[in-house]
Amino acid sequence: MGGALAALAAVGFAAAASGAGYVNTPADICDIRIKGPIGDRIESCIRHHVMETDVRYITDCFYDRTEARNWWQTEFWGKYMHSAMPFAVYTGCPLLRKNVDEGLVRVVEAQTKEGYIGNYPPDRRCGEGWDVWGMKYTLLGLLHYYDGARVTGNGELGTRALKSAMRLCDFVISELGPGGKRPFWTTGNFAGMPSCTILEPVVWLYDRVRVREDLGGQAAARKYLDFATHLVSQMSEVEHGPRLIDLALSDVPVYKRWPLNDNEKNMPGHVSKKNRLKAYEMMSCYQGLLEYYEATGRKDCLEAAVKTAMSIARDEVNVVGGSASDEHWFHGAVKQHLPYRHLQETCVTTTWMRLCEKLLALTGDRMWADELEKTFYNAYLATMRKDGGAFAAYTPLNGSRLFGHDHCRMHTDCCNANGPRGFIAFMRAFMQASEKTAIVNFYASGRAGVQVPGLEEKVVFDQYTHYPKSGTVLMWNRTKKTQDFTLKLRIPAWGAGTTVKINADAPIKAKPGEYLALSRTWREGDRVEIRFDMAVRVHRLDHAVAFTRGPVALARDTRSGDRGEVLRAPVPDKPQFTLVRVEDPDVLMACSAILPFGSHSENVDGVNPAAVTFVDYASAGNDWRPDNIVRTWFATEWTIYE
């Protein structure tokens, strides 16, 4: 990619080690500057969440090694670093850099002589609780710091972080590696999946150590790749383990990866702590398998991840891009109109975005950008409080949004810690590159640039748009040097009727669900105009309907006068929705439609269809009050003849 900064692509994004590489190379997030409502949300998250996180509070646990209740206090610092270090580089904020430095020093100084960093006593380490899971996140935090320090110039402390990560991984290998004290998959719950997620940072560690001759280079790094290979075998070859490769390659849907017995089917809450249905942890395992594919070229790991993600998109993801009930797969795509509890855990939402981002880079398949965009504008933005200072634990399709409960005797929770990571995934996938090709995946006002292989100068485009409220996107080439390259524009699957025009040329009709490739000699000031057809689509499931406009799901809430009425039949296939102005600055988009709402046609108010107001799902219910109820799926009436 050229240059030390660009070589990082995005802070914390592991470079391909050998055997396999990206089809699309991500841009550096420092070259993605988003403005408008989305930019405001990113800035508010940085200011009110990331910067206000108390690093001493989330690192105190590493000095208290008396964990006895199988909690996961040690995950919070590593999750924080996933967004804090990239945003420290992105903003250049001295206070944020000071915070990440202080947290790093506290974690490193808590390391024992054996290399352990955690809060479990010696007799409970690497056992059935969440100790290995916590060490996974600690490794990720250390490596995120190392990557960022190479950019900020704090290389000495970065090397200290890398050495600490090596010692921590050495400790895990001594306990759980080949010939260790117990089989790796037997640690933790859910068939060992939480512990197996450590594969991701183990491969990251291998990738970073192998190029550091002062730390032993390839010879020193080999044991980490060998450990990763051992982990893959534990994840795929043990009968009662996660079986993440063979079940995927056999096309077993994610919701059928564990046969539920009668007791589990009737059990409220988590169906079992031994199952393979836990959504967040399963996807995190595939994140590691994708890293292992990069390092080794083992195509079965990539194929298994793709097949699993296809099952998730087909069988689990709902109309707002969210998934899972009680944090488990449950064939939710066909049940999303029903009142299931604890829908759309934020940890599941952000991890799905990360998985889509990675698959987009590795495969170049536009589908993963479509999926990421749908989740981002709906399920993800809906999780964030209006001021950016907190993220909800669950975001129901019908119901109210509230604070998550505190975890582990701490005043935070896993979802609140995970929330900012979604913005990182969106920004890393915003613009990408392949050989002599710049790829635009998302549309939002701002400036985005990427270093294209084979070109001397970074390709930079400005965007002016109110997308997704508006279907018009104007782009100007701001690259100084005249260069021959291809500009690929993602045309979403819903984008039938999309046209693209370059300068004064005739409009081009774009095919939905494909990239439109524009190859030419590009000069500074060249103008690209995209016009998307934002017609509203109706989604139907067993006497219930939902509406989407472009990538955005439409919803109603009590503030817009919703009273829970049913829709009287028939609901038109192509209802007419009109954008309307609202005074609330926290509402991204509002529409009005003439629809037959009402329970009884003889009522005066229900004789004729009436104007009904909808807003985007992320804005509906964003008061975070029990009486601020959101509805996304609307019941339609039955007749006695059915």
What can you tell me about this protein's structure?
With 642 residues, the protein is α+β, with helices and mostly antiparallel strands. The protein has helices at 4-7, 36-50, 55-59, 76-91, 94-109, 131-152, 155-176, 193-196, 199-209, 217-236, 246-249, 262-265, 279-296, 299-316, 346-363, 366-383, 414-418, 421-430, and strands spanning 25-26, 32-34, 431-434, 437-440, 446-450, 459-465, 472-477, 483-491, 499-502, 508-509, 514-522, 527-531, 536-540, 544-549, 552-557, 577-579, 590-595, 610-616, 630-631, 634-635. The protein has three domains: 4-432, Glycosyltransferase, CATH 1.50.10.10; 437-531, Immunoglobulin-like (Sandwich); 536-635, no CATH class. It contains 18 helices and 20 strands. The protein starts with a helix and ends in a 7-residue tail after the last strand. Mean pLDDT is 91; it is low at 1-18.
Task: Give a brief outline of the structure.
The protein is an alpha+beta fold and 642 residues long. It is 36% helix and 15% strand.
Largest sheet features:
8 strands, antiparallel
What structural category characterises the helix and strand content? alpha+beta
CATH fold topology of the largest domain: Glycosyltransferase
CATH architecture of the largest domain: Alpha/alpha barrel
* Percentage of residues assigned to helices: 25-40%
How many individual β-strands?
20
Radius of gyration: 25 Å
How many DSSP H or I helices? 18
* Termini gap: 62 Å
Q: List the domain count as a whole number.
A: 3
